[in-house]
């Protein structure tokens, strides 16, 4: 693949990951194993609201082809088949969820040094079609996204965004929800290895005249431990500690509570991921 501006989905992703990834209020345990034949098997158990659920995922890689299958405790099956460079500088992704036979989806991605393009269509009689396009460089990128419902003959979404990437910082602005919301974010890396960072994000919804401002960050205490925290203007505070117990095996303890309603019970999450 060429090194271009990236996909439209990448715009704003760095800030989103810092503010949402690994924050959870469930008890989660996962074990992953790998074989020399390119097969990865991951078993996950999640306790949420007093209920226990889980899934088993198998990932198989062979040359430029990846096959991913996931089965959950309710016998739902999700399968994804990915072909890289089936045509030069392209990626093709086919997915389906069973027993919902109408959930099939086919996506085509094209990468160029100064542009990327994706189109995705549902595999049913009245498919919904999503199209994205991004132009620019790895430093600055402009992109747009549109969704079209062939049944109603109307657009389901249209979004536009811009991102600027520098060695020690990243900024993005996204106009979404059919022009009803705008989200601006900024990430500043605090070290050369980019293990510690500060992030700020502001979202405005024009229809409700509502603003949400969130600040947060990630700090590497040492090479094994990371601390993350976030706080928004509505008083929602979240924090987590992530520690590598043994190589590639990570323990994550997270919590979230409302600083404006301290009488409410905070939410706690625990996740353990074991990898060979």
From TrEMBL:
Q: What Gene Ontology terms describe where this protein resides (cellular component)?
A: mitochondrial outer membrane; pore complex
What name is this protein filed under?
Mitochondrial outer membrane protein porin 2-like
Question: What Pfam families does the database record attribute to this sequence?
Answer: Porin_3
Per UniProt, which keywords does this protein have? Answer: Ion transport, Membrane, Porin, Transmembrane, Transmembrane beta strand, Transport
The family note in this entry says:
Belongs to the eukaryotic mitochondrial porin (TC 1.B.8.1) family.
- Family annotation (InterPro entries): Porin_dom_sf, Porin_Euk, Porin_Euk/Tom40
Give one GO molecular function term.
voltage-gated monoatomic anion channel activity
Checking PANTHER family in the record gives: MITOCHONDRIAL OUTER MEMBRANE PROTEIN PORIN 5-RELATED (PTHR11743:SF23), VOLTAGE-DEPENDENT ANION-SELECTIVE CHANNEL (PTHR11743)
Any idea where this protein resides?
Membrane
Would the keyword Lipid metabolism turn up in this protein's UniProt record? Answer: no
Instruction: Name the CDD domains on file.
Output: Porin3_VDAC
């Amino acid at each position: 693949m060429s090194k271009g501006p990236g996909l439209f989905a990448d715009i704003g992703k760095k800030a989103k990951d810092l503010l949402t990834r690994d924050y959870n209020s469930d008890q989660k345990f996962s074990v992953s194993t790998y074989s020399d034949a390119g097969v990865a098997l991951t078993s996950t158990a999640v306790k949420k609201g007093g209920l226990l659920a889980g899934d088993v995922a198998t990932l198989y890689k062979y040359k430029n082809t990846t096959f991913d299958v996931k089965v959950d405790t309710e016998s739902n099956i999700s399968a994804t088949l990915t072909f890289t460079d089936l045509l030069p500088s392209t990626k093709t992704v086919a997915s389906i969820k069973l027993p919902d036979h109408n959930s099939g989806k086919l996506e085509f991605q094209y990468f160029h040094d100064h542009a990327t393009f994706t189109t995705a269509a549902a595999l049913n009689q009245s498919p919904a079609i999503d199209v994205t396009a991004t132009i620019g460089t790895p430093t600055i990128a402009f992109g747009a996204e549109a969704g079209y419902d062939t049944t109603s003959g109307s657009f389901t979404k249209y979004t536009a965004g811009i991102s600027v990437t520098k060695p020690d910082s990243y900024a993005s602005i996204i106009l979404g929800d059919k022009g009803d919301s705008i989200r601006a974010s900024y990430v500043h890396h605090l070290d050369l290895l980019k293990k510690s960072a500060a992030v700020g994000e502001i979202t405005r919804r024009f229809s409700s005249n509502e603003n949400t401002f969130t600040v947060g960050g990630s700090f590497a205490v040492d090479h094994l431990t990371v601390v993350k925290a976030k706080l928004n203007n509505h008083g929602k505070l979240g924090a987590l500690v992530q520690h590598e117990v043994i190589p590639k095996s990570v323990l994550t303890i997270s919590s979230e509570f409302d600083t404006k309603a301290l009488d409410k019970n905070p939410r706690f999450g625990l996740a353990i991921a074991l990898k060979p």
